[in-house]
Amino acid sequence: MRGPRSGRLPRPSPPPEPPRVVELSQLPGWSAEDHDRAFEAWRATCHASRDRAVADLCARARALGPIARGDGRVFLERAFRAERLGPSDGVLTAYFAPVYEARRRPDAEFSAPVRPKPADLVVADGGIVLRTLPDGSAEPYPDRAAIEATPIDRPLAWMRPEELFFLQVQGSGVLTFEDGTRVKALYAANNGQTFAGIANPMRDRGLLARDNTSGDAIRNWLAAHRGPDADQIMRLNPRYVFFRLTPDDGRPPVGAANIPLPAGRAVAVDPAFHGMGDLLWIDAEAPLLAGAFPAYRRLATALDTGGAIKGQVRADLYLGEGAAAGAEAGRVRHTLRLYRLVPRP
């Protein structure tokens, strides 16, 4: 085997650094955590994990029955240690389950159709999303602009365009009709296009202040410029999400782990780096957006995924349902340090 042109043998790569293991008591913000509440949220969702050691701890936790004050901390500290993930910091964002008005017929305000999964959309090997053509061939599924330009005979409902856009970003939500009927709009499929956020382009075009690219600020601008101007901005994100409607049962939305999401205690993660059911410690501070909480430090379980959630030190915190959760979620963009809790040997 030929070496480098200098004739010197290449230096061997250094061995990977072992995970940085710390006791839970050493985690930043651990002493201020509501340990009992964190424990209850974890044991309600711990069956999502496929790790045998975690499954054993899950069974032990569920066998305890009601706990006394402080028992949650005792159990967690005896059962787990923490590993710092990644060589560098990442990003924490947040999401929520929106509640939006809808109409059964369109009008000037409610002009955007909620589309069901199209019959011509198929998912091929490797997760590639295709559109089948009448001659039996297939092509990549069109982007947002092309889909929106295609008439639809039987939409599920009609919404304000900017609110449909946010529903697609969140992936699910609740729709309320004029007669008081509430239904859940659940994710059915997407067109396979790469998700692209619109906050940075809006900031770079001077449409929003640099420190005010929150969800509320974006939605307010889109509403105030409803029509061609807002459509042009929303079409910067080529991904389009299709939905299905079910009766509203009052339960929280279900994530990728097929488990209802506990508000403030569930995160969407990149499945290339995390398993569903992983118990994580979030240490996030230094927010970029005005009006944000200064820090988020808490236990949360990996129960969901998201098209924009990529990388090992990347998490999207589920904050609950409705306008208040949405206002908070839209301001979360914090520097993240992430730890995985691992069972003691």
Kindly describe this structure.
This protein is α+β, with helices and mostly antiparallel strands and 345 residues long. Strand 7 (129-132) and strand 8 (138-140) form a beta hairpin. The strands form four sheets. The chain has a six-stranded mixed β-barrel. The two termini are 43 Å apart. The chain has helices spanning 35-45, 52-63, 71-79, 144-148, 161-170, 199-204, 215-224, 228-234, 323-329; strands at 20-22, 80-84, 90-97, 99-101, 112-114, 121-123, 129-132, 138-140, 157-159, 173-176, 182-190, 241-247, 266-268, 279-285, 296-304, 314-321, 334-343. The chain contains nine helices and 17 strands. Helix 1 (35-45) packs across helix 3 (71-79).
Main sheet strand line-up:
3-16-13-15-14-17
The percentage of residues in β strands lies in 25-35%
- Derived structural class: alpha+beta
- Note the run of SSEs as H and E: EHHHEEEEEEEHEHEEHHHEEEEEHE
The coarse overall form would be globular
| Total E-strand runs | 17
Task: Give the overall average pLDDT.
Answer: 93
Largest beta sheet, briefly? 6 strands, mixed, barrel
Radius of gyration: 23 Å
N/C terminus separation: 43 Å
Number of helices: 9
Which quaternary structure do these chains form? single chain
Low-confidence runs of at least 5 consecutive residues: 1-11
Helix content range of the residues, please?
A: 10-25%
